[in-house]
Design goal:
Distance between the termini: 18 Å
Largest sheet: 6 strands, antiparallel
Structural class: alpha+beta
CATH class: Alpha Beta
CATH topology: Thiol Ester Dehydrase, Chain A
CATH architecture: Roll
Number of domains: 1
Helix content: 25-40%
Number of strands: 6
Number of helices: 4
Shape: globular
Strand order of the largest sheet: 1-2-4-5-6-3
CATH superfamily: Hotdog Thioesterase
């Protein structure tokens, strides 16, 4: 089953509106999504800035969370299944200040799709570490996140 980017953008909007208000406050934008990669963008503005005029840690964490999470929801939609998704852990390395709009890129779509398939087949919760890179407007990596994704197909 094919899932449109428009449908996933709508799901992200609804998630921020009804389920996770901090996502709605930060307003991440879904730039692109496919079977291999997702790109999420967060603008540097008053809501996402800290006192040093760089992106606040919390806004960066929201971007990493959304990049890994929406990719899992994308594959659940493709399989016409509902999932229970949580993050069991996060490790972050901040390499430089995020002083511009930031793109969050997760290129582990194949692994997340495999997790969804394993959960469908076994009925068990699957846990996997997923890497998300945060890049500035000059294509420099400003942070690297390792998100431990825990999902179960319902």
């Amino acid at each position: 089953m094919e899932v449109s980017i428009r449908k996933m953008r709508w799901k992200l909007f609804l998630l921020g509106l009804f389920k996770i208000p901090i996502i709605g406050f930060v307003r991440p934008k879904l730039v692109s999504i496919d079977n291999k990669e997702i790109v999420i963008s967060i603008s540097l503005r008053k809501r996402t800035k800290n006192h040093l005029n760089s992106m606040y840690f919390g806004a960066l964490a929201v971007g990493a969370d959304v990049a890994a999470g929406i990719l899992a929801f994308y594959f659940s939609e493709k399989n016409n299944k509902k999932i229970s998704l949580a993050f069991k852990g996060m490790n972050a390395q901040f390499l430089k200040r995020a002083e511009s709009n930031i793109r969050f890129i997760c290129s582990e779509g194949e692994m997340i799709e495999e997790m969804v398939q394993m959960s469908i087949n076994s009925g068990e919760r699957q846990n996997q570490s997923v890497k998300v890179n945060a890049m500035n407007e000059h294509n420099e990596i400003v942070a690297i996140f390792e998100m431990v994704v825990s999902l179960k197909v319902l």
